[in-house]
Amino acid sequence: MHGPNLLNWMNPRRATMLADLATLVSAETPSRDKTLLDPFATMLAGRFQALGGKVDLIDNSAGGNHLEAWFAADAQLDLPPALILAHFDTVWPRGTLADRPFRIDGPRAYGPGSYDMKASIILLEAALTGLRELGLTPRRPIHVLITSDEEIGSPTSRSLIEASARDAAHALVLEPPLPGGLLKTARKGVGGFTIEIEGKAAHAGIEPEKGVSAINELVLQIPRINALANPAVGTTINVGLIEGGTTPNVVPARAMARVDVRVTTMDEARRIEDAFHELQALTPGASVQVTGGINRPPMERTPAGRDLFERTRQIGRSLGLELGEGSTGGGSDGNFTAALGVATLDGLGMPGAGAHAIDEHILIESLPERAALLACLLLEL
Ligand SMILES: [Zn+2]
């Protein structure tokens, strides 16, 4: 077990890791801004090349470029690679740094995208550097994907992630952990549906009977939609946005709702998708059109995922870490890999808090131990 050696190597490097984190946080990377994403991907490519990786920038005309890197590709052992998933986009718009630059305050380091998940990229760099400098060869080739669009549902990276996962022994996802540093072994699936209602416009004063109110129809549909929830099995529904009508004296011809759905099992995903697409108008003359679906399948607990977590917990003990696990309602790219049957462990990023919130931060103290943990996983799994 090389855990203690790796931890000893990481311990004096906290300040270096923080300086590297400052560099990454100080370059903004909103998910839809290619002019900011592409230079960042290029910068990352340089950093990973300097660590001895075989690095490719993946051109993406529909969004920011993605980064792919291979390490230990010449490992003698003929084993399938470990897939490491990270993303460099953040939910923060251009200009956020002007109000909230990177800053250190006591035990915490703050900044947009620090916790979700630029600190994770720093952990990976530190892990790879530590292994190299200590002359330790990972057990299997390491396939790294750092993508540019996770925060908007991975529209352009999903196929790349899935193709990579099919060849991998397991997927290690560097999203932040749960409170207390708990690893994520289950995630809800995420769906989005749009309900569009068409009625018929008419003058509200002169001949309202000739109209069909799309708003009234939508109001009838909403209880039916909410009734699809089954919180006992983790299925929740949020009608998060409604719109409709034009002006008070016109019977509204159009109305629409957008709905967020979370599910814990594929069975529930199918039930919900079927139910949404079977919604029918209740008002004569109105029509209902439903689009959307479950876009991230649930990451369910599987025997292979459980085994991966148990081995990780053993490795954590060699570093003096008692790792726990938990589930979350949020989705990540781990949902895609788990749905393919690939053993997936998520939450390997930095402890902290405030994902997508203005107090986003990491806990500085944990940098060495989380970097050492990741290095040990690359070495031994
Ligand atoms: Zn994230």
Word description of this protein:
By secondary structure, the chain is an alpha+beta fold. The chain folds into two domains: 266 residues, Aminopeptidase (3-Layer(aba) Sandwich); 108 residues, Alpha-Beta Plaits (2-Layer Sandwich). Helices cover 34% and strands 24% of the residues. It has eleven helices and 18 strands. The strands form five sheets. A six-stranded mixed sheet has the order 1-2-6-3-7-16, with helices on both faces. The protein has a four-stranded antiparallel sheet with strand order 4-5-18-17. A hairpin with a 7-residue loop joins strand 1 and strand 2. Helix 5 crosses helix 11. The protein starts with a helix and ends with a helix. The mean pLDDT is 96. Bound molecules: zinc ion. Zinc ion binds next to helix 5.
Question: Which SSEs are present, and which pair or pack?
Answer:
Layout: H1 3-10, H2 14-25, H3 34-50, E1 54-58, E2 66-71, E3 82-87, H4 96-99, E4 103-105, E5 108-110, H5 114-133, E6 142-147, H6 158-166, E7 170-173, E8 183-187, E9 189-198, E10 202-203, H7 214-226, E11 236-244, E12 250-251, E13 254-263, H8 266-277, E14 287-296, H9 303-317, E15 325-328, H10 334-339, E16 344-345, E17 352-353, E18 361-363, H11 367-380
Parallel strand pairs: 3-6, 3-7, 7-16, 8-15
Antiparallel strand pairs: 1-2, 2-6, 4-5, 5-18, 9-13, 9-14, 10-12, 11-13, 17-18
Helix pairs in contact: 1-11, 2-5, 5-11
Zinc ion binds next to helix 5.
Protein name: Acetylornithine deacetylase/succinyldiaminopimelate desuccinylase-like deacylase
Keywords: Hydrolase, Metal-binding
Organism: Singulisphaera acidiphila (strain ATCC BAA-1392 / DSM 18658 / VKM B-2454 / MOB10)
